[in-house]
Write a structure and sequence with these properties.
The complex is a heterodimer of chains A (112) and B (114).
Chain A (H helix, E strand, L loop, with lengths): L8 E5 L4 E6 L7 E8 L6 E6 L4 E2 L4 E4 L5 E6 L8 E9 L13 E6 L1
Parallel strand pairs in A: 1-9
Antiparallel strand pairs in A: 2-7, 3-4, 3-8, 5-6, 6-7, 8-9
Chain B lengths: L3 E4 L2 E4 L5 E7 L5 E7 L6 E7 L2 E4 L7 E4 L5 E6 L8 E8 L9 E2 L3 E5 L1
Parallel strand pairs in B: 2-11
Antiparallel strand pairs in B: 1-3, 3-8, 4-5, 4-9, 5-6, 7-8, 9-10, 9-11
Classes of the chains: A mainly beta (112), B mainly beta (114).
Chain lengths: 112, 114
């Protein structure tokens, strides 16, 4: 599975959009980009995933560059409850050896 | 409704005394994972089961074992816990027979070794 690189931390203002970058320059054609977040002392929570098209759900939007070497998770209107560590994970779609491997993630702090 | 359930949420064990953490799922997923997460670190995969096939990570200590008696349950056994094994232990499930499905995580068991 491809490695990912994320900034260690970022702050954003409540009510503003939060844009979280992730680099995955070695991604293969059959690998998906997944985003999870982990609020302190809780299990990781799935946010969104995609292959090459932009995706949107009730939580966030995922923008994947055309060459698929990087992506951005967008939280459209950040709230204090969005304060968490956000993880970008790249892995293949199917297979018994499919593993969700976490990098260091980005600590996002939403402030008033 | 909780889909991946870990019990207990908090576990205190004595140094060297075997301890078992449990995980159950209502999703009928064929893969179950165990992660260790130490303070201020990312979750680290220990091993996973694909159906009954056990897959150990290369750097997982022998002190950690796992059992999966059926699809719904999976156990993490720590044979002789040391102080360095104090951590949050996370269980997760996934399907791999269907493309691009996500993993579902439990709320974790926080293990304290005294």
């Amino acid at each position: 599975d491809a490695k990912t690189t994320q900034p260690p931390s970022m702050d954003c203002a409540e009510g503003r959009a939060a844009n979280l970058p992730c680099n995955h320059s070695t991604i293969s054609g059959n690998e998906y980009v997944y985003w999870y977040r982990q609020i302190h002392s809780q299990g990781p929570q799935y946010i969104i995933h995609g292959l090459k098209n932009n995706e949107t759900n009730e939580m966030a939007s995922l923008i994947i560059t055309e060459d698929r070497k990087s992506s951005t998770l967008i939280l459209p209107h950040a709230t204090l409850r969005d304060t968490a560590v956000y993880y970008c994970i790249v892995l293949v779609a199917v297979g018994g050896n499919r593993k969700f491997t976490f990098g260091m993630g980005t600590q996002v702090r939403v402030k008033l | 409704d909780a889909m991946v359930i870990q019990n207990p949420r908090y576990q205190v064990t004595q140094f060297g005394k075997p301890v078992t953490l449990s995980c159950s799922q209502t999703l009928n997923h064929n893969v179950m994972y165990w992660y260790q997460q130490k303070s201020s670190q990312a979750p680290k995969l220990l091993f996973h089961y694909y159906d009954k096939d056990f897959n150990n990570e290369a750097d997982t200590p022998d002190n950690f074992q796992s059992r999966r008696p059926n699809t719904s349950f999976c156990f993490l056994d720590i044979r002789s816990p040391g102080l360095g094994d104090a951590a949050m232990y996370l269980c997760a499930t996934s399907r791999v027979d269907r493309a691009n499905t996500e993993a579902f995580f439990g709320q974790g068991t926080r293990l304290t070794v005294v």
